[in-house]
Amino acid sequence: MAELTGWLLDLYADPQGGVVLWLLEESGGRRRLTQPFPVTFYAAGPASRLRALWRFLTEQPQPLKLSRAERRDLFSLQPVTVLAIQAQDPIAQQQVFERASGAFPDLTYYDADLPISLRHAAVYGTFPLARCRVWADEVGRVSDILSLDSPWELDPPIPPLRILSLEPDVNPSHAEPGCLHISDRRYSYRLALDRPRPLLVNLCAILQRHDPDLLLTTWGDTWLLPRLLELSEQHHIPLPLNRDPGYGVAYRRERSYFTYGQIIYRGQQMHLFGRWHIDGHNAMLFHDYGMEGIFELARVTALPVQTVARVSPGSGISAMQMQAALRQGVLVPWHKQQAEHPQTALELMHADQGGLVYQPLTGLHQDVAEIDFVSMYPSIMVHFNISPETVGDSSPTAELIPELALFVERDQPGLIPQTLAPLLKKRLALKARMAELPSWHPRRASYKAYTSAHKWLLVTCFGYLGYKNARFGRIEAHEAVTAYGREALLRAKEAAEDLGFTVLHMYVDGLWVRREGLRQPADFQDLLDEIVQRTGLPIGLEGVYRWVAFLPSRQDERVPVANRYFGVFQDGSLKVRGIETRRRDTPPFIVATMEHMLSCLSQAESAGQLPDYLPQIFALLRRCLAELRRGRIPPSDLLVSLKLSRTLPEYNSPSPAARAASQLESLGKIMKPGQVVRFIYTLGEPGVHAWDMPELPDPAEIDVRRYTTLLIRAAASLLQPLGVDEAALRARLLDRVVARPGLWQKNLLSQQHNPASTPTTKDSPVLTGSRSPVRAVVNACLAGQSDPAAPTRQPFRSPK
C-alpha cells in the first residue's frame, strides 16, 4: 500500500465502478487512481407505493442495497420515512433513478441528481485543488483519502499547474481564422489551419510533449475544439485532448433561458477527462475574476473546475447548500415541493417591498462619505439566522421579524447561515488583509480575484432564497431578509442624523452622508461605530468623495434616479454608475471619449473648480466630433453590441439587433436568443451593418449623425450637473449658439433642491446669484469666450 501526497485535479464517475481521481503528485507526476464509491438516493411517499417501488427495484439488473430509513427533510417538522436505495457506483445510481422516477413519478425523491464531486466532498472533505494524502495499492485503487487543507484557507498551497493556451488569430464568427497560436510559459507555436494534416500531427506532438493540466482556449467550446475534432475524424489522426484515453470529449448543448428578467445564452461546452478545458470566451464572469477566481470558486463550492467556470454563481451557491445538507444528513429534494403561503393582496404588498431606496438629492456635492454594509443580505441571513426552516410561526425562542407577521428561530442554526458563515468570514479576512498590503504587493491581485468570486456567490444567495426552483428556497425567508435590510438602513439613517450628518442618498445597502468640516476617513469612524452598535451588522467606509454628482432622469430633470451617479474619491479614483461608460451597448469610441472627460474632471479638487475644466471638455468633444466626421474613427470603435431578446420571427417590429441578426442569418449564421449581436449604424435601409458580415461597411454609409447624437447625449450626462444639458451642448458643439433663459439658474451643489435648508459656505456655494463666478465661466464657455481665470492645461488627444 503506497502513500501519495499531492493535489486533487479531477474526479468523475468510472464506467467500471466507483470514481476516477487524478492526483498531481508533489513529485510532479500525474497519477490516475480509482476508488469504490457507492451512492445512495431516497424515495418517500405512501407505504403501498414504496412497497411497489421495492418490488420494482429488486427486478433491476444492477445490484442494489434497499433499506427502510428515517431522514430529515428541511421543510418537515418530523423525520421522513424513506426507502434508501444504494447503488455500487454513480453511473448505476443514475440509471436506476431514471427508471424508478419514470415508473413511479408520484413519489418524492431525494439526493437523486447530485454531482459526484459534492457527494465525495461530503464524505471525504475533498474539493478541486485540495492537497490530499492518498493510500492506494499497486494498481492505483484507493483505500482511503485525507484532505490536508481547507477551502477556507486564505493562502492555499498553489499546485504547479501546466497550462497550454490555444487561440485562433481572429474571431471565427467575424472571419475565417488562418492560424492557431499555441503557447505556455516558455514556448510558443504558430500552426496554419489551412493544412489539416500537418496541423494535427504538430498539435499531437505539442500535447504529448507538454502534457498540460489545463487547455485554456478562446472560442474553444464553440469553434476551435469542434473544428479540430472534425479534422481529426476526417484525416484519421486521433487527438490526445483527454489525458484519460478511455474517454471521449463530453459535449453539452447550447441553450437560451430566461432568468431575472433577461435572456441568457450559454454556448456549447466541451469538457475533458484527466485535464481541464476552459474557454475564456464562454466562461461565466471570466473577465471579472480570471483563472484565480475560477479556482477559488471550485474550492469553496466543490464543483469541478470545468463546470464552475461555465455555470452561474447561483449554481455555485446551490452546490454549497447541497454539500452542507449532505454533511448534516438533510435530504436534498429532487424538485422543490413547497409553495408560498396564501396571502391577501394587502399582506403581499406589505411584506414584499424589497430593498429600501431613498431618492438622492440631485446635483453636485462635495466631501461626501459613502458607507456600505458589508455583504448586507448574507450578513443578515447569518446574523439573524434566516433560513427556510427557521422562518415561520411564533415559538418561545423565536423573535418577531420587523414589519412582518412572521418569526425567526434564533437558537438552532439554520442551513443557509451555516453555509454562508465561513464564506463571509473568509471574504472579510481577505479584505482586511488587502487593506494592510501595499498597492504593489503581488498577493493583492489574487486576493482581489478571490473576493470578487465570493461577491458573486454572496450576491446570488439572496436571490436563490426566493427563487421558485431553488431546492432550499422559500419566499417568506426572502421577505424576512429584505425586512431586516430596510430596518438596518433606517437605523443607519437615524444614527447619521443624530450625529449631525445630512443623508444625501440611500440605496439598499449603503448611504451617502456629509457634514460640514469632515472630509478625512477618520472623521467618520464615530458614525461607523454607532451604526454597528444600532444594527449589529458589519459596515465599512467605501471612501470619501472630493465631489459626487447624482443625476436626474433624462426624461424629466426634476425626477432623481437612484443608481445614476459619478464621483471622484480623495485618492483620485473614479466611481461611476448608470451612465454610458457602464453600458455594454455603448460604442468604444464614446466610452473612450467619456473616460477622457472623466479623467479631466477628476483633476478638480472641489466641486467649485469643475467649471474651470469646461473649455478643455468642449475642445475635447470638438476634436472627437471632427475625427468622426472625417472618417478617422476605426469601424471597430463604432460597434454597438445588443442582445437578442427572442427569435427573429417573434419580432413584430425588428430592433437594430434583430435587423443585424437577419443579415447574418442570410449567410447561414444563426443567432440565438441571448446572444450579443454587433453592428454599425448606417444610412438608409436597413440602417445597420452586422459586424460579422464578410465585408466591412462602406465608410461613406456610416450614420455619422446618429453617432454624433449618441456622443452628445452621453457627454451631456456628465455635464448636466454643471448646467449643460443636451440641447445646450449640441448648440455649443455644432456652432449654433442659442439663448436659453434660466439655463444656469441652478444650484450646482447639495442645496439644489432646498437652498434654504442648508447654509451657504465657502466650500459649498449656492450658485444662483447673478455674480456667481461659476455661472460666469460657464456662460463664457458657451458663448465661445475664453476665461482669463481658467487654468492652462494640455489638451486631451481624441481617443483612438
Fold and architecture overview:
The chain has 800 residues and is of the alpha+beta class. The chain folds into four domains: 150 residues, Ribonuclease H-like superfamily/Ribonuclease H (Nucleotidyltransferase, domain 5, 2-Layer Sandwich); 227 residues, Palm domain of DNA polymerase (Alpha-Beta Complex), CATH 3.90.1600; 135 residues, no CATH class; 69 residues, Ribonuclease H-like motif. Helix 6 packs across helix 12, helix 15 runs antiparallel to helix 16 and helix 16 packs antiparallel against helix 18. The radius of gyration is 30 Å and the shape is globular.
> What oligomeric assembly is this protein in?
single chain
Beta-strand content estimate:
15-25%
**CATH top level assignment of the largest domain:** Alpha Beta
**Strand order across the largest sheet:** 19-24-25-20-26-27-28
Radius of gyration: 30 Å
Question: What is the makeup of the main sheet?
Answer: 7 strands, antiparallel
Outline, from the CA principal axes? globular
N- to C-terminal distance: 65 Å
Number of structural units classed as domains: 4
* Portion in helices: 25-40%
Low-confidence blocks of residues: 736-800
Structural class: alpha+beta
Number of helices: 20
CATH topology of the largest domain: Palm domain of DNA polymerase
The named CATH superfamily of the largest domain: B family DNA polymerase, palm domain
The count of β-strands is 31
Mean of residue pLDDT values = 87
Per CATH, the architecture of the largest domain is Alpha-Beta Complex
